[in-house]
């Protein structure tokens, strides 16, 4: 069910995007050497030629700043023109304070401005984009930023879940337009998949004061890939049909598709199952991997900078998250 926009005359426009990457490029043959396996095996099984990992002497602040500065420059503005910052990251920098406060500390606006976090793991950016659409009447210029460091939580004893990830950041600047905008959006959660993707540590339930002997092992990423894949594969086709139907659209009306870069298998399945035209799909998985919340905005950045997107084109952004969440949004370029 669609909600009524607070001001239908304010239509969301993306006026600038940017991305940031760590300095350390990690080809898959380096992972082969790390794991002591035959060269070429990681790329063959993961579908990933390379990814970027934060170096030991590097801070995620640099790639977050890079993404924000590129997006602001593309929009032709500075941080002092921004009314609200939404940090849409899947992993917290630390438990307290919230991520957006640190983002403002990095960007150094001349005055205090509104800022808050949205966390829906891999769907954090997409959920924030939908939320920003309803906030333009209050905050005319909004900066969305996602920054995730997957590499710190990878368990290299679990080959299939550790070899598909990469680190990265991406940002987008939002303002209103008289045309285009968000045509439809939908989000839902299937809590039966709550245990399929987890990092149990980091909150009050698995705190080191309660479980000191197991805390370190609980700080690594755990995934039941088969169950997650099955749930998502069964739910996504109908979910997308319902999302599009809310705006009397079908997949035939969509000009470009920006999926979450979850895994090579997931992308191939969706293309095959929905009979999608590969030429319409933004696929950066081979060079970036799954960057958690930064995946969708990084792919969106590539779409808007590298593809011939025209006024009136309809862009479908969609994906899944831990939880298990599903999300989709159709944006028409003004």
TrEMBL record:
Q: Which GO terms describe its biological process?
A: fatty acid biosynthetic process; secondary metabolite biosynthetic process
**UniProt keyword Mitochondrion present:** no
Database matches in CDD domains: KAS_III (cd00830)
Q: Which residues form the Beta-ketoacyl-[acyl-carrier-protein] synthase III N-terminal domain?
A: 116-188
Keyword Cell wall biogenesis/degradation in the entry? The reply is no
Question: EC number(s) of the enzyme?
Answer: 2.3.1.180
Cross-referenced InterPro entries, in alphabetical order? Answer: ACP_syn_III_C (IPR013747), ACP_syn_III_N (IPR013751), Thiolase-like (IPR016039)
User: Could you tell me the superkingdom of the organism this chain comes from?
Assistant: Bacteria
Q: Name one GO molecular function term.
A: beta-ketoacyl-acyl-carrier-protein synthase III activity
Q: Where are the transmembrane segments?
A: none
Q: Name one Pfam family in it.
A: ACP_syn_III
Name the keywords, alphabetized.
Acyltransferase, Transferase
Q: Which residues form the Beta-ketoacyl-[acyl-carrier-protein] synthase III C-terminal domain?
A: 244-332
The UniProt entry, under PANTHER family, shows: 3-OXOACYL-[ACYL-CARRIER-PROTEIN] SYNTHASE 3, BETA-KETOACYL-[ACYL-CARRIER-PROTEIN] SYNTHASE III
Put simply, this protein is called Beta-ketoacyl-acyl-carrier-protein synthase III
Source organism of this protein record: Neisseria sicca ATCC 29256
The organism's lineage is: Bacteria, Pseudomonadati, Pseudomonadota, Betaproteobacteria, Neisseriales
Gene name as annotated:
fabHA
């Amino acid at each position: 069910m669609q909600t009524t926009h607070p001001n239908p005359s304010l239509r969301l426009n993306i006026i600038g995007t940017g991305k940031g990457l760590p300095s350390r490029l990690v080809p898959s043959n380096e992972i082969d050497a790390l794991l002591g396996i035959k060269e070429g095996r990681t790329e063959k099984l993961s579908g990933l030629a390379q990814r970027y990992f934060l170096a030991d002497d590097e801070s995620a602040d640099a790639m977050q700043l890079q993404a924000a500065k590129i997006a602001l420059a593309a929009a032709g503005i500075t941080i002092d023109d921004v009314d609200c910052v939404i940090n849409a990251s899947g992993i917290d920098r630390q438990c307290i304070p919230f991520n957006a406060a640190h983002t403002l500390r990095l960007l150094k606006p001349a005055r205090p401005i509104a800022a808050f976090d949205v966390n829906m793991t891999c769907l954090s950016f997409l959920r924030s984009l939908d939320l920003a659409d309803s906030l333009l009447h209050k905050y005319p210029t909004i900066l969305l930023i996602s920054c995730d460091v997957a590499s710190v939580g990878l368990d290299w004893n679990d080959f299939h879940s550790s070899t598909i990830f990469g680190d990265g950041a991406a940002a987008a600047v939002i303002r209103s337009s008289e045309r285009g905008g968000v045509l439809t959006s939908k989000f839902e959660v299937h809590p039966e998949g709550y245990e399929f993707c987890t990092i149990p540590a980091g909150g009050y339930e698995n705190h080191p004061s309660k479980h000191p002997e197991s805390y370190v092992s609980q700080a690594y990423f755990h995934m039941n890939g088969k169950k997650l894949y099955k749930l998502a594969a069964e739910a996504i086709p109908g979910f997308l049909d319902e999302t599009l139907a809310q705006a009397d659209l079908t997949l035939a009306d969509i000009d470009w598709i920006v999926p979450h870069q979850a895994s090579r298998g997931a992308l191939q399945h969706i293309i095959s199952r929905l009979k999608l035209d590969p030429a319409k799909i933004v696929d950066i998985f081979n060079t970036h991997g799954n960057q958690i919340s930064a995946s969708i905005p990084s792919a969106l950045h590539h779409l808007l900078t590298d593809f011939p997107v025209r006024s009136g084109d309809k862009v479908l952004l969609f994906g899944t998250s831990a939880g298990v969440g599903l999300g989709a949004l159709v944006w028409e370029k003004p």
